[in-house]
Amino acid sequence: QLQLAESGGGLVQPGGSLRLSCVASGVTLGYYYIGWFRQVPGKEREGVVCVSSGDGSIYYLDSVKGRFTISRDNAKNAVYLQMNSLKPEDTAVYYCAADFRCSGYVEEYTYWGQGTQVTVSS
Question: Per residue in 79-94, pLDDT tens?
Answer without folding.
Answer: 999 999 999 999 999 9
